[in-house]
Design a protein that fits this description.
alpha+beta, four-stranded antiparallel β-sheet
């Protein structure tokens, strides 16, 4: 499938940036972009999507394998770059999309919510997972601050309040 789509889009140089490849595909057969990204993700990671028991995501060029959806979204995305992702939700067909920097979306989750490519129930599951990850990350960061302050400024644990 990858070879077929690249032949149709006249992609001959495999070192071409993914954003350039996507632009060529969009010009010739825009309906093939999602299948192209999903197949690249399958080929590159060799992961079995059927074993996933939670929403998993790969961001092309940013992650080397599928990671939990929330963890993958808890990163900064380049505002000047085309960001491409593949999302696997257990029991559903994988889906892949792309967006151009902050002009279209700030993260894959933001892009998914803007484009309404999944059901409202799935949106809620994805949002909840992401919010839980953000809270967990903040809690870990606060614990590190608490330890640093306690060590360096001699503040006792009972004098340091978190939330």
């Amino acid at each position: 499938m990858i070879e077929h789509i690249e032949n149709v889009a006249h992609i001959t140089d495999q070192r071409m940036l993914l954003a350039e490849r996507l632009e060529r595909i969009v010009q010739h057969r825009p309906e093939d972009v999602g299948a192209y990204l999903t197949n690249i993700a399958k080929q590159d990671t060799q992961q079995d999507f059927l074993t996933f028991d939670e929403p998993m995501m790969l961001v092309h060029g940013a992650t080397d394998f599928f990671e939990p959806f929330a963890k993958t979204n808890d990163r900064d995305f380049d505002e000047h770059k085309t960001n491409a992702y593949a999302l696997v939700i257990p029991g559903e067909e994988p889906l892949s999309r792309h967006f151009r920097g902050l002009e279209e979306a700030s993260s894959p989750l933001h892009h998914i919510l803007k484009t309404e490519i999944v059901s409202k129930e799935t949106e809620q599951v994805l949002e909840k997972a992401w919010y839980n990850e953000v809270i967990a990350t903040e809690d870990r960061d606060l614990e590190k601050v608490k330890q640093l302050v306690g060590r360096n400024l001699n503040v006792t644990e009972k004098d340091f309040r978190i939330r």
